[in-house]
Amino acid sequence: MEFKSLVFYVFSTILLLASLRVITARNPVHSALSLVLAFFTAAGIWLLLEAEFLAITMVLVYIGAVMVLFLFVVMMLDINLIELRRGFWSYLPAGLLVAGLMVLEMVMVLGGANLGLSEPAPLPADYSNTKAVGRLLYTAYVYPFELAAVLLLVAMVAAIALTHRKRNDAKHMSPAEQVKVKKADRLFMVNIKPQKPDAPKEDES
Amino acid sequence: MIMHAMTLTLPDLVPALPEIFVLFMTCAILLLGVTARQTAWSYALTLLTLVGAAAITAFDSSGSPQYAFSGQFVDDPMADVLKLMTYLSGIAVVIYSRAYLIERKLFRSEFFVLLLFATLGMMVMISANHFLVLYIGLELLSLSLYALVALDRENKLATEAAMKYFVLGALASGLLLYGMSILYGLTGTLELNKLAAMVYMGVRSPTLLSFGLVFLVAGLGFKMGVAPFHMWVPDIYQGAPSPVTLFIGSAPKLAAFAFTMRILVDGLQPAVGDWQGMLAVMAVLSMAIGNLAAIMQTNIKRMLAYSTISHMGFLLLGILSGTFAGYSVSMFYAIVYVLMSLGTFGLVVYLSQNGLEAENLDDFKGLNSRHPWLAALMGMLMFSMAGIPPFVGFYAKLSVLQALVGSGWLWLALVAVLFSLIGAFYYLRVVKILYFDSPNAGVLPLSVHADSRALLSLNGLAVLLLGIAPQGLISLCVYAMQMSMQ
């Protein structure tokens, strides 16, 4: 086995184990950290494929930004995993059976399948992966690229529409309303007729 | 290849004008929603956008397929007809749901923005000629729909439905992507035309081709909501707010049809023998499960969800016949089904007034004695769904069966007729409830919303008139399919 294949298999094994850990870990923080590991090994596999730009973006964006934010959220939320996991064991046998069958079928179909792919010729030393990706994104793939931007916009609109709300129990004030307030809104003049106090009756006795 | 694809010229944008127009208008409405106090503006602009897009599509259409964006976008007559129907159902959804939304304080700009984004997603799917574009269009539609289902946050049932929809939708997307990636590995192309050419010339491993196809068809089945991938449909139809159910039950069916046609016919027509059998199994299961389970329902939205499953199964029959005539009648069936579904769910939305959710079959008891015209409309729609002449649902079913028999699937046609007969039972039960039961005590009289009432009447009459004279629509579908398939 040449070195490249060895690296690939090592990365793939770690990736699979980390992914498994994401869904089996008891503590959600551990899940999130395993996900970081999974992303990291995936970036390693991309590096093996000479997709340097994608690999670095994966590390910077997914691990550096998205997962850190995600970790913050997970740490701040009080997630009751026992509640979430109820029924896990009762569904497990059926799930395992289906998954096992699927794997068996896939091995039977794919085992020994030859796609006839050969290793691409090595690229020249001054070849820029970033440039190639950029060129494709803004020419041949400009349509799906712009659509992906729209997709992100929808995600933003949806997130705001679902979480932003006026809370009835919050005691916030509006400065604009406060400035606009007039004397008549707050002060009521009540006209009370002067009344004679009842004459003390003790005197007459 | 990189050098070749580098040019992006202005004529490229012309076929995609409707998409660009809808995108710009949606962003405008989004901005307006932030500043304007009156949601009525968003409402009016949404209608304007859909009408404008229809005008552009009609003006822009040409008799032959036009490709743009390095062959990733296709504008053919099939796409034009389906897009026009999509706008029409968008308009109907917006008008039908206005009063409902106002009453439940959901009349917000976001509803219209998400609805337009979903429409854009459907347009992208209808006009896609590339796996990547198909997938992004699908996600655009799905993401907007998830948010729409959950828009009423106080409603626990809706939130649960949105969660289920989201999880199962993500699973289906995963299946689709897996299938696409296998086909990409096998043929080295994501473009549907080129894929068809590669498959026609023969691929290295036919087993692997059908292996990828299985995942694609399973993903398609999820998105169309056919058995055995139908589990989400009843829960989402029941849980979502009625206007959202109305929307999910209408235009996305056209997009799902286009999606299936693009992948299976545009991309994998040479492998027709492989997918025919899969679709046949799915069609039979859908008709069986849909029609049998619908009989037991007491909630009308749930009943209509099962009815959708059976109708989608019927739709597959036309596609799986694998002939040009089959594709045309399938398109006709999809359009007719959307018309009927709009009317039926529109009535459910219309009757949900004064704090009442007209969700249960009991809420429709004796509608005839309260509102004879609405009851007549509902009756017509039910007759049409059951496939009873002279309503258009009958011709839709008949033409699909003809195409099926014509291509030698006699046993399948017999099964379809059998299950349609079983299905007629629960549609006719609704008619019985409308006309022969006495209304529940203490039902409040309905207030009149002239706009949606007029459109509902038009919708119901269209089902009747198209049934008396279906030739125009049928020949339009045949023409569109003929021009697109050459």
Quick rundown:
Chain A is mainly alpha-helical and 205 residues long.
Describe this entry's structure for a reader.
The complex is a heterodimer of chains A (205) and B (486). Chain A is mainly alpha-helical and 205 residues long. In chain A, 67% of the residues lie in helices and 0% in strands. Chain A has nine helices and no strands. The longest helix of chain A has 25 residues, at 52-76. Chain B is mostly helical and 486 residues long. Chain B has one domain. Helices cover 75% and strands 1% of the residues of chain B. Chain B has helices at residues 17-35, 39-60, 77-103, 109-126, 131-149, 156-187, 192-201, 206-224, 232-239, 242-248, 251-267, 272-295, 300-320, 324-351, 367-370, 372-386, 392-406, 410-436, 450-468, 471-485; strands at 66-68, 73-75. Chain B has a two-stranded antiparallel sheet with strand order 1-2. In chain B, a hairpin with a 4-residue loop joins strand 1 and strand 2 (73-75). In chain B, helix 1 (17-35) packs antiparallel against helix 2. The longest helix of chain B is centred in the middle third of the chain and has 32 residues, at 156-187. The radius of gyration of chain B is 22 Å and the shape is globular. Residues 1-6 of chain B have low confidence and may be disordered. Classes of the chains: A mainly alpha (205), B mainly alpha (486). Chain A binds chain B through residues 106, 109-110, 113-117, 132, 135-136, 139-144, 147-148, 150-151, 153-155, 157-158, 160-162, 165, and chain B through 2, 5-8, 16, 23, 27, 30, 68-70, 72-73, 108, 110, 113-114, 117, 120, 124, 130, 132-133, 136-137, 139-140, 143-144, 146-147, 150-151, 153, 185-186, 204-205, 207-208, 211.
Largest sheet of chain A: none
Number of strands of chain B: 2
Euclidean distance between termini CA atoms of chain B: 26 Å
Q: What number is the mean pLDDT of chain B?
A: 91
What structural class is derived from the secondary structure elements of chain B? mainly alpha
Helix content of chain A: 55-70%
Strand percentage of chain B lies at under 5%
